[in-house]
Design the sequence.
């Protein structure tokens, strides 16, 4: 395991998905921070330390697209991976976002996208 683990933040209002993603990412050697709302992430002191953000698009309160917009003002180079269960939204956003996953998604594909995001490669 590398000495400096990548820190991945996950924002989703679905507790089961948060736990599942946390387990997946930790098993892959990442350090994980989980938040059940966008506001919880923004109110934390975590933003400067994270290497990649994974956020659900469809959350109550602030959605993932708005969170991405706010985060990009403070951390313009921070890679953001969007996830959604709403396929019509995914179809609209696919052209604008390199890292967009429709639920349910393949965990290995997500891990590959995180690896690409952390190394600055475009997701294919």
Sequence:
């Amino acid at each position: 395991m590398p000495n400096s683990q990548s820190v991945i933040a996950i924002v989703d209002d679905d507790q089961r998905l948060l736990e599942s993603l946390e387990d997946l990412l930790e098993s892959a050697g990442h350090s994980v921070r989980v938040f059940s709302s966008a506001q919880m992430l923004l109110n934390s002191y975590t933003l400067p330390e994270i290497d990649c953000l994974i956020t659900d698009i469809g959350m109550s309160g602030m959605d993932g697209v708005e969170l991405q917009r706010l985060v990009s003002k403070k951390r313009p180079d921070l890679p953001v991976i969007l996830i959604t269960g709403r396929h019509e939204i995914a179809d609209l956003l696919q052209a604008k976002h390199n890292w967009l996953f429709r639920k349910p998604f393949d965990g290995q594909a997500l891990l590959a996208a995180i690896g690409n995001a952390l190394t600055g490669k475009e997701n294919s």
Q: What stands out?
A: The first strand starts at residue 7 and ends at 11. The radius of gyration is 13 Å.
